[in-house]
Amino acid sequence: MKYVQHVRKEWRLRITVPSELRAIVGCRELVARNLPQDMRSRKRVAAPIIERFLTQLDDARDALVAANSAVAPSTSMLAKQHYAKALSVDDAKRVAMPDASAIKSEQERIKLLIDTGKISNDRPIEAIT
């Protein structure tokens, strides 16, 4: 078996933890000691331990990917967020714009001010505001 080794008259199961996962797993190696001397028994005992260790490494790898993606969003994600924000700003500006009836009523108000003489030809902008 790949991870089973005979060390100093003892059978051990050792899996080296990749360097990028050591901070998450908390150790350099995953080790199970005192495996049986008989080869068939050793294989039977080692198989679920290997599966458990490899699952632990997979979980650590998933945690690392999740941590990295939470810290640094992708460029496409940032672009989508920027585009969504630009669209919402544009929608807000369009909602705030006057409709045709508001424009027509403002034109009529200005015509009335001109007719009554409240707006002079000297400074028309100051009279409107």
What report would you give on this structure?
It contains 5 helices and 3 strands, in the order ββαβαααα. With 129 residues, it is of the alpha+beta class. The chain folds into 2 domains: 4-71, no CATH class; 75-128, no CATH class. Strands 1-2-3 form a 3-stranded antiparallel sheet, with helices on one face. A hairpin with a 2-residue loop joins β1 and β2.
In short:
The protein has five helices and three strands. It is an alpha+beta fold and 129 residues long.
Backbone structural class: alpha+beta
How many domains comprise the coordinates? 2
Task: Estimate the strand proportion.
Answer: 5-15%
The number of helical runs is 5
Order of helices and strands: EEHEHHHH
Average pLDDT, to the nearest integer?
88
The main pleated sheet reads as: 3 strands, antiparallel
Q: How many DSSP-defined strands?
A: 3
Instruction: Tell me the helix content.
Output: 55-70%
* Uncertain parts: none
Radius of gyration: 37 Å
- Spatial order of the strands forming the largest sheet: 1-2-3
Set down the secondary structure blueprint:
Blueprint: E1 4-7, E2 10-16, H1 22-25, E3 29-35, H2 39-71, H3 75-96, H4 100-116, H5 124-128
